[in-house]
Amino acid sequence: MLQLVLFNVTNGLIIGSFYVLMALGVAMILNLSNVINFAHGNFLALGGYFAFIMIPYTGFWIALIVAPLLVALLGYIIEQLMVRRVYSRDPVYSLLLTFGLSFIIQDLCRYFWGPNGLPLTVPDSLSQALSSDLFFITGYRVFMMTIVVVSVVGLFSFLRYTRMGIRIRAGTLDLDTVAALGINVRLLRTFNFAVGIYLAGLAGVLAGGQIGLNPNMGDDLLLPAFIAIIVGGVGSLTGTLLGGLLIGVASALTTVVYPSAQDAVIYVIMALVLLIRPRGLMGEEGMFT
Amino acid sequence: MSVTTTTTTKLRQPRPALPEWTMPAVIWVVLLSAPLWLSLVGGYTALASHVVVMALVAMALNFLLGFTGVMSFGHAAYFGLGAYGTGLTLRYLSDSTWFAMLNGILLGGIAGTLLGTLICRRRGVYFAMVTIAFGQIFYYIAYRWDSFTGGYDGLRGFSRQPLGIGPWTIDIQGNGTLFYYFVLAVFAVCVALMAFLLRSPFGRTLIAIRENQRRAQFLGIAVDKHIWLSFSISCFFASTAGALYALLNNFADPTALNYTISGVIVIMVVMGGMRNFWGPLVGAAIYVVLQDYISSMTQNWMSFIGLLFVMVVMFFPSGILGMLKRRATT
Predict the structure, then answer these.
(1) Looking at beta carbons, which residues of chain B come within 8 Å of A260?
(2) For site-directed labelling of B92, which of A181, B14, B70, B113 has its Cα 20 to 30 A away?
(3) What is the per-residue pLDDT across A196-254, written as a single tens digit (0 to 9) for each?
């Protein structure tokens, strides 16, 4: 029993860490630019596919570094060409725009790489189980968690200690004042968008190694990412982090008791949070409502 | 002096304004006569019924989006619930089309009303996000509970039954044209109700909330309650459309509940023209016909639909009727 619970908690943390990477990207873009990026899951899939193309030539390690950067570059181009133009408009337009982009990217992935799943090869050194008792803790899973932890810590220290990061945080609180202080808000938003997309690309490479690649792999992560943001509290990245881990572990533990409710439980959590504490676990009163 | 006045009057010569009833008159003539000319332009009656059904759900959304200023991205849920409610009743409970429709409408409407109490705690983009998330619940239920709902393959094994009205029966089962007129009649009732609501003091209050929520609040309007009511009403109309959708296809599938359809409903509204009462009808007609055409031409229809979304947002943000209106006034 203990092993079963441990097994599911591990699974929950793994899936939760994907939710976190995804949700942090969505939340950064949402907080600063008020844009819900529907195409985030498709950028994630692109990260996986870019790595898939690169691995035969460069090996896994370089792909892990370069593929997310390429996705971020693509995100930058799309932001410059399209998303930037809808920032000042009614939010319905940014939603529709990213929605359309999500259709296009998904269809292109299907066109180029086929509708079926593809495996992403992971180095042998990572794919063994660490011990026979805890067979479910493979090297790759430990590695994945490490990368997620490193990137989350990296992101938070970037936001806390660098000038750019402080500007981004200030911008989420009051963009007008930030602009009035002479900071190039346009550049700030572009950079912020690219960072968010980078996180999606990174999550895509990692997820590809774990569950394989398919054109809609990001769609299943998009909704949980939204829920993580709502549960954690809009405007708070720490909240998003906690929210993602919470729903990941909660849905994995539900699998032990009642497997068919594993999707439902995260919605129950969201409903409870909205009922009892509408601003979310870490959200601040009166902000962002 | 006299010269300048003549030139200004010449320049300002206003185009003779069309009377206000022109638009509805044209629309109703087109809709009522559709079965007569549709086959001449390569259409078919079921396509026309599909357009009217989607127009109804888009107008239901526009009640919320265009006239209350609140963005729901989860209307597929209530649309789909209407469809499932109708289909499940016909399959398991009764062979009365009326009863089935009633059940579908109540299922979607009541679900929307109840969830609305939670959803209306958020505003702006976050309102949209919560509607998407809650909308997905029903998708997962329909998808997982396959012994009851047919799961991934959708709910089959039912068909619309002839309608009984007093001593008469109308054979909407076999006769597609009669069914089209039945759909149109339901559409007309719903549209009349929506127009009535929007002209009432209640509807004016909604528009006031759309224009300036904070000011409406200062005037003593219970903003939260009004948004919730508007959301519930909109869900009831959306589930009515869903009920018709199930009858149209004799089929209810889980993708009708998915947020993709919510996005499609929103694009219909925006493409036709938000804030314009008839806009969603135009948007729905264009979307349904275009999708029918493109998906018969190419497998990659998703790219084209996605491109349509992008084009509408980038180049036609005020929608077709919005553009026509602007051209008429300037």
Answers:
(1) 144-145
(2) B113
(3) 999 999 999 998 888 889 888 888 888 899 999 989 887 788 899 999 999 998 988 88
pLDDT of residue B2: 46
Residue B274, CB-side half-sphere exposure with 13 Å CA sphere: 23
Q: Where are the domains of chain A?
A: 2-116+124-218
Torsion from C-alpha of A247, A252, A256, A260, nearest 10 degrees:
80
B144 closest CB neighbour out of A95, A103, A260? A260
**B71 closest CB neighbour out of A91, A111, A263:** A91
Distance, CA of A275 to CA of A279 (rounded, Å): 10
- What's the pLDDT score for residue B13? 59
Kindly report the nearest CA distance between residue A264 and chain B, in angstroms.
7
ipTM of this complex: 0.85
Crossing angle, helix A163-173 and helix A139-161, to 10 degrees?
80
pLDDT of residue A134: 65
Give me the total of CB pairs closer than 8 Å, taking one residue from chain A and one from chain B: 124
pLDDT of residue B95 exceeding 50: yes
Find the Cα–Cα–Cα–Cα dihedral A177, A183, A187, A188, rounded to 10°: -50
pLDDT band at A76 (very low <50, low <70, confident <90, very high): very high
B184 at interface of A, judged by CB pairs closer than 8 A: no
In this structure, are residues B63 and B265 in contact, taking their beta carbons and an 8 Å threshold? no
Q: Measure Cα distances from B83 to A8, A60, A208, B55, B71 in Å.
A: 37, 48, 36, 15, 22
Q: Do A104 and B302 touch (CB under 8 A)?
A: yes
B69 class by beta-carbon count within 10 Å (0-12 exposed, 13-18 middle, 19+ buried): buried
Is the pLDDT score of A9 beyond 90? no
B34-67 core/surface letters (b: 16 or more CB in 10 A; e: else): bbeebeeeebebebbbbbbbbbbbbbbbbbbbbb
| Residues A250, A244: Cα–Cα separation, whole Å | 10
CB-CB contact of B125 with A91 (8 Å): yes
Residue of B nearest to A97 (CA): B310
Of B242, B268, B302, nearest in space to B76 by CA: B242
Question: In which band, very low, low, confident or very high, does the pLDDT at A142 lie, cut at 50, 70 and 90?
Answer: confident
Grade residue A285 by pLDDT with cuts at 50, 70 and 90: low
Q: State residue B74 phi and psi, 5-degree precision.
A: -130, 25
Chain A residues with CB under 8 Å of a chain B CB are 30, 34-36, 38, 82, 85-86, 89, 91-93, 95-97, 99-104, 106-108, 110-111, 223, 226-227, 229-230, 234, 260, 263-264, 267, 270-271, 274-275, 278, 288-289
Searching chain A, which residue's CA lies closest to the CA of residue B114? A271
Interface test with A, best of B62, B127, B149, B309 (most A CBs within 10 A): B309
Q: Which of A102, A223, A276, A284 to substitute to test the interface with B, most B CBs within 10 Å?
A: A223
Residue with tokens 């699998």: A255
Q: Does the beta-carbon distance from A86 to B313 stay under 8 Å?
A: yes
pLDDT per position as a tens digit, A36-46: 999 999 999 99
Q: Say if pTM beats, i.e. exceeds, 0.95.
A: no
